[in-house]
Structure formats: C-alpha cells, structure tokens
Amino acid sequence: MTFVDLKAVSLTYRLGKETTLALADATMDIGEGEFVAVVGPSGCGKSTIMKLVTGLLPATSGVVTVAGKRVTRPIKGVGMAFQNPTLMPWRTTIDNVLLPMEIVEPHKRRFRRHRAEYVAKAMALLKTVGLSDFADKYPWQLSGGMQQRSNLCRALIHEPALLMLDEPFGALDAFTREELWGVMQALWLEKRFTGVLVTHDLREAVYLADTVYVMSRRPGRIVMARTIDLPRPRTLASTFEPAFVDIVHELRDRIHQEHAA
Amino acid sequence: MTDRTRRIVTLAMPWMAMAVFLIVWELACIVFALPEIILPRPTKVFAVFVQRIDILLAFCWDTLWTTVLGFAIAIVGGVVLGVLIGASPLIYAGLYPLLIAFNAVPKVAIVPILMIWVGVGALPAVITACVISFFPIVVNVATGLATIEPEMIDVLKSLGASRLQILRKVGIPRAMPYLFASLKVAITLAFIGSVISETVGGNRGIGFLMLSAGARNDAPTTFAGLFAIAIMGVAMYAVCVLVEKRMTRWAFRGQLVS
What we know:
heterodimer, A: Rossmann fold, 4-stranded antiparallel beta sheet, 34% helix, 25% strand, globular, B: 258 residues, 2 domains, 11 helices
C-alpha cells in the first residue's frame, strides 16, 4: 500500500530575483513499512525531498500525498533525525528522548499523569541502542555516536508511522556508523515504520533500504530506482558478498554518469 | 607549583593586584606631594570611610535599592520585549530601530525630563537605572531566541509543535544563558544610571554625596563615595555570576565535567 506518494513534484527556491530549481519532476511511491534511501551527488536536492514530504516546504508544483492526505503544511508526528543530533543541552538523555511525548497527541495529554510508564518505555528503547547507563547524562557527556543513538531514540519514541533520516550517520567515524546501521535495521525490523533515508554513503543505502533512489545533479531528478532484494537481517559480512557489492557498483556507476554529464 | 598552591595563588591574585594598585597610589601621592584636593591618599580615603560610615551606609542603601529596583524592572520588561522581538521577525523589524535610537540617547539627558515629570528623589534614579540596563537584556534575550538551530525547529515542527510550544521547549531555555550573561553587564549599567540621576538631580544617594562633597572641595569624601560604588558594583556583579552559574549549569559544561 502506498504511504508516501510524490507525483511530478518540483521545488524552486526564490532568493530575490534569482530562482534555483532544486528538485525537478520527482515521482516516488513509497509503500507502507518500506525503507527507502535517496542517494545522489552533493547539492542535488536530497534534503529538499525530506522537507517536501514532511510539509516543511510547500512544493512549487506537483502533489505530495502522505497516508492518503495531500500535504500542504507540516504534517504532525513525524520522526526526524539529522546529521546534527540537535539534542537539547539542558535536558538529560532520557528527557531528550521523551520530548516528543510532550508534543504529540495523545501522549501529550497523558504525559504528566503517566510519566512513569513513558519513562519505562524510553528506557526500554535506550536499552535497545545500548544507552541504559547514560539516561541521566547530559548530551555533552556523551560521545558523538551516543548522541546520535539518543537522537534516533527521540525520533522513534512516539512510534511514528514515518521516519525521516537526513544523513544521520554522516558525521560519525566508520566503525560507529556501521554499528548504527545494525541498530537502525533492528529497530526497523521490530517496528516496521516507513523510513526515508537521505545519504551519500552507497553501502549504507544498500544495507538499510528496500529501494534506493538515485538522483541526478542539480536540478535533482530521480534517474534510477533500484530494488534491493537482499535477505534480512543484513550483516556487515553481507556487505562484502558479491550480490551486495554488485549493487553498490551499479549505483556508483550511475552516479558517476551524473558527474561526467 | 602544586595544584593546591596554584589555586590559592589564583584566588589571591585579585587582592594582590588591588594591594599593589593602592600602594602605588599611596606612594605616588607622597613622592609627588600631591595636594589632597587633587588626589587624596588611599589611607586618607579609608580614614574618611571609617569616620563617615553612618552616612555612607545610609546613602549606599539609597543607591543600592534604587539600582536594584530599576534593574529588576528592566529584567522583567527586557525579557518580555526580548522574547517578543526574538520570536517574531515582524516585531523585530518594527521595534529594533526604535530600540537602537532609544539606546543612543544619552541617559543623562533624560534625567531633567524625569525630574519635571516625577520630581526630585528616588523615582528618577529607579527609572534611569531601569532604562539604561534595559537594552543589553533585550538584545541578548532576542539573540538567544533568534539563533536556535533550524534543524531543531524542523524536528519540533514535524512533531506538530505550535510556535508557542517551540518557544517554551527550546526558545526560552536556550535564551537563558544569554539572559544571565547580559545581567552581568546590565547591573553595572544600572549603577551608572542611578548614580547619574542622583548626581544630576537627587537629594540622597552616593551620587548626591559625591556631588555635594565635591562642591565643598572635600576630595576624600568624594573618593570614599567612589569606592563605595565600586564595592557595591563588584558585589552585585558577583551575585549575578552566582545566579548565572546556578541557573544555567548546562552552559558551563567544561567546568562541570572536570
């Protein structure tokens, strides 16, 4: 079943008299519970797709539909995680993770009276990413990888139907990044939300996604949609298997064409 | 140097610097045989300080409460206006130029107007202290709000947060360190304001004491007043620093971790 639907969506940024076409004629069809990745050369409008789907930016032309409803303004209850963990330095890890509960209904109404229940839920989530012992620490007491784990927990605590990830592992070292792929996959296998991951790491895209969309240079167009039918759960070992490597090469070749053009 | 002695020396440094300053001053007065009316020796100032402690304390108290009251009003008003300006680009566009124009007006010029309006006494001092310390508070609070990371706002918006919620959950806590940093600047400005007002048109307070002592060519008393203001200024500054550290511990993370 289609959950996120983009039909011929374009976006033009206007700055004074200058207009920049950031995204041209994008058509995507993301099924419910599907995990897709969007890859492409830098500056191709990958992040623009994130903003369009969540309604943070209105499309210049075309139609964005999420869960059967046309998106015209920011849709509610989406989980989001960026490269910058954007944790609040004045809150402990657990309080950061609980933030969505103070905003998203029906949790907001129940939050004060049922705080213990929500704390237990947040602790369970922190445990799955290995942060149980750091619940009462402040963000600056955590390493970059730990901050990004808390960030993922915050994006998922309210069990959003849609999770938007904008290069969330981009600023991490290679080991931590690969470890968090596993964490992300485990979370997805458990909760089966619809996920959109923007990245420029092709291995990351193939590891996590059901479908990888390749975008062209600016103005960004979707030039390829590659279904990844590798069995799950995928492991780091499987990223070195020929089937996996072949897909990565195929994607890389397509992006090189874009750079050459 | 061990850690312990280093710490003691660090703590003693400001006192030693002050002692050196006073000794040099004292010696200069003696060596160059400066007349007392031009520059009284610190020991003489101190003697006057002790001698006139009653009137000094009474006038200090006048200056202190007018300053603190004006400062308190400036905090309340400054936070409200700062939040409005920081949260709304429209209000910012409308009020900011006005605010800058207002800040550019020398505050000494408004004291005579205040005296026409409210007469001589404590009230002009309170108002002057308030208007002079208002500006840095407004600007800092507004800056704190206006510099929230856009990603943070995106996260909250896509959760469905209203503008008011974004303000409450992110804007206000984020603006706190900016507010407390501005208080340190603002409290010293508030003292300047109240003393200016007392000097131009007051009948009490340290400013008035200094002016009338000056009129009698009583330099040691004038200097005693100067010292009194300096002591109050440092004390209130220290209070602001203490409050700052208590209220926004998260912003001083480096010191907390170590």
